[in-house]
Amino acid sequence: MTAFYHPIRIYYEDTDAGGVVYYANYLKFFERCRTEWLRAMGHNQTDLLAAEDIVFVVKSVSADYKRPARLDDSLEAGLRLTHLGRAQLQFDQWVDRLNTDGTRETLVTGSVKLACVNLKTLRPVPIPDWLHGQLQPSDAP
Amino acid sequence: MTAFYHPIRIYYEDTDAGGVVYYANYLKFFERCRTEWLRAMGHNQTDLLAAEDIVFVVKSVSADYKRPARLDDSLEAGLRLTHLGRAQLQFDQWVDRLNTDGTRETLVTGSVKLACVNLKTLRPVPIPDWLHGQLQPSDAP
Amino acid sequence: MTAFYHPIRIYYEDTDAGGVVYYANYLKFFERCRTEWLRAMGHNQTDLLAAEDIVFVVKSVSADYKRPARLDDSLEAGLRLTHLGRAQLQFDQWVDRLNTDGTRETLVTGSVKLACVNLKTLRPVPIPDWLHGQLQPSDAP
Amino acid sequence: MTAFYHPIRIYYEDTDAGGVVYYANYLKFFERCRTEWLRAMGHNQTDLLAAEDIVFVVKSVSADYKRPARLDDSLEAGLRLTHLGRAQLQFDQWVDRLNTDGTRETLVTGSVKLACVNLKTLRPVPIPDWLHGQLQPSDAP
């Protein structure tokens, strides 16, 4: 599997009094991208909950902030699955800006580790086989 | 019952690129004040859910924005219960700024109507008697 | 002018522990729709700030909550310009759900009043002629 | 300097449809704690901006999620300054829950690196001497 991208537009709600996007909000963009990646494979999290009683929870996240995004910016959130375990997933994630001159620059890079857990117990459970078989980590870039 | 107040401090998360508090966030401050008012009577929403299977949902809200709040401002959210029905509550709510010179000015005023609903059906149910008896709308100001 | 629509997808960030979209977040959806309406006319707020030193600020908002939106829902935010003054704009705004069976239902309706203000003084100023000429309130539905 | 703590209460705005606090929101709690730490030394960010034209921006963040926080939880955000450079600061940060039985458990731990930058250029500048002299990294625990 190659990288997956999801477009993000910056609104007032995303910005702060520094005139830039608030640092916690890139984690929202990361999550939107993971959700759309899952949806692009034909799944959504509501159905996974209902059918399998599982939910993916974030175990750890890291982010490096290189350049700020601003109001009205047109961004793309990207991800690449880097590790697929029995009950865990790991992603490289990033946010790029699509400049009006056609160039693209990376604003934030990060890494996110998810665990598959039972909704009731919140304890780790294996990713269901039918879903595990569909997920494939990327080859090295 | 007289007015109830809850302190609010403004952080970066609350502001937007206009340099002021984002307009939707005053509804968060309204809710914090309602929650603390309920807690001051000895209740919290988690317990109401667990014990009674009820939850209060917002039916309508209005807000008038008079002056903007800014980063580091010290505010107070206030409320007054104006109507108590069998399954509904109505509040006047507002947010004041406490200025460093000791003066106070009103930034936002509003009104919120809540319904008591069953958690499962989301249909209106009467406010439990023991709670209804504790709630008293304010006299006219 | 007829109604303008902007698609909204519901992510975890939009929901709360009640399992539904948090009530303040519909005001974000209202704002995204106003921003995209302006952009569809060829303007964005960053340019208006830079070129004219003006910003639109919300003077008042009201919202009626009819049905809750949930995780993964596909919504549309809509608006209709209902009043155009020299320094003020008023909109009817709403959020519909696009159900998977092809039906559509209205979840939230509201009304928003904006003022055009100078960025430095935050005092009302006339909407620039070139922009005012482009804006046309809707005829009655 | 020893650890610094700031109380956090969980409201509906902080939670998501999983019934727990949304993962990005712990970064808000981290920031509230850094802001209150600075304020406890007699400074606020608005004044630093006005007096020195400087702002602290986040360069990187990491977080490990151990246990979820829930609605109505009473938390404490903590920090310890671990590195003080000419233009950079590094913190260990964490969020604990204060249980009703008097026990305390750590929910999230993390690390944050800040740079002192000029507000206009967004380029790194030395932390002003008078402020640098006041900041002292903690001794090893």
Q: Please, could you describe this protein's structure?
A:
The structure is a homotetramer of 141-residue chains. Chain A has 141 residues and is of the alpha+beta class. The first copy, chain A, has one domain (4-132): Thiol Ester Dehydrase, Chain A. Chain A has three helices and five strands. A five-stranded antiparallel beta sheet of chain A has the order 1-3-4-5-2. In chain A, strand 4 (88-98) and strand 5 (104-118) form a beta hairpin. Chain A is elongated, with a radius of gyration of 16 Å. The N and C termini of chain A lie close together (11 Å). The mean pLDDT of chain A is 92. Chains A and D meet through helix 1 and strand 2 of A and helix 1 and strand 2 of D. Strand 2 (54-65) of chain A pairs antiparallel with strand 2 (54-65) of chain D.
How are the SSEs ordered, and which strands pair?
The structure is a homotetramer of 141-residue chains.
Chain A: E1 4-9, H1 25-40, H2 45-52, E2 54-65, E3 74-84, E4 88-98, E5 104-118, H3 129-132
Antiparallel strand pairs in A: 1-3, 2-5, 3-4, 4-5
> Can you list the strand order of the major beta sheet of chain A?
1-3-4-5-2
Q: Can you count the beta strands of chain A?
A: 5
| Content of β-strand of chain A | 35-45%
CATH architecture of chain A: Roll
Radius of gyration of chain A: 16 Å
Indicate the CATH topology of chain A: Thiol Ester Dehydrase, Chain A
Structural class of chain A: alpha+beta
